[in-house]
Amino acid sequence: MVSSTALPQKCPSCGATTLVLSWGLISKPLGTFSLAGAQMKTSAVEVAEVDCETCGVHVPGRLVDATFSADGSSFTGGHFEATGPAEQPAVVTP
Length: 94
Prior knowledge:
Elements: E1 3-7, E2 19-27, E3 44-52, E4 58-68, E5 75-82
Antiparallel strand pairs: 1-2, 2-3, 3-4, 4-5
């Protein structure tokens, strides 16, 4: 992920307001895109995800009408829209 910031929305799982928004670019899997030319290259898509610091839930999604501070370090407007179900963190039992 490229950057992260606090998000002023409630967690879909526990209702806490301790969400952290991360966004950046992720490369598409090989064989799912075609780019002309002899140089090595890849195709990337913009991704956003939210993680709750209280319950650990992870929600993939996208930013809608997003605006950021001048230096790009903080989210100043718009909203996060989930594109998949909330995923609970894996529990490891010894």
